[in-house]
Give the backbone structure.
Amino acid sequence: MDEHAKSSDVLFSEDNSIIHVSGNKESVGKILKTSQGLSKVFGYSKTEVIGHSVNILMPALFARKHTEFLERFFKTGRQIIFYEERNLFATHRNGHCFSMKILVKQMPNLLEGIQYVGMIKPIVSE
C-alpha cells in the first residue's frame, strides 16, 4: 500500500463507505459489493445498490459526466482520478447532495476482471 493510502483519513475513518465497482466493459460502473458504511453515508442498504450503476450515488450532472468519463477511459486508457484523494459531491438516498472525499484504486481480479474500489468519507462542515 502506498504511503498516501496508509495515512488517508478516507481509508481508515469509521464513517466511510467502501464500494467495489466493475471495470469490465460489459458491466462497467455496476456496484459489485459495498461496506456496511454505505447505509450510514448514503442511506441505501447493500441490496438496494448492488447490481446498479454507481451513478445512483451522484448528482445527475456528475452522473452524466461520469458515464462520459468511463466511455473515454475505455477508448483512451487515460486515468485522471485514480490513486489521488479528491473532494467531490454525492447524493444521499433522500435526495440531498453532500461533499465527500474519495480515493479510487484499480484492483485487477483474476476471476472477476478489473474492479475499482472507491473509499468515501463525507465531509462534515463544522
About this structure: The two ends are 31 Å apart (CA to CA). The longest helix spans residues 60-76. The helical segments are 3-7, 37-42, 46-49, 60-76.
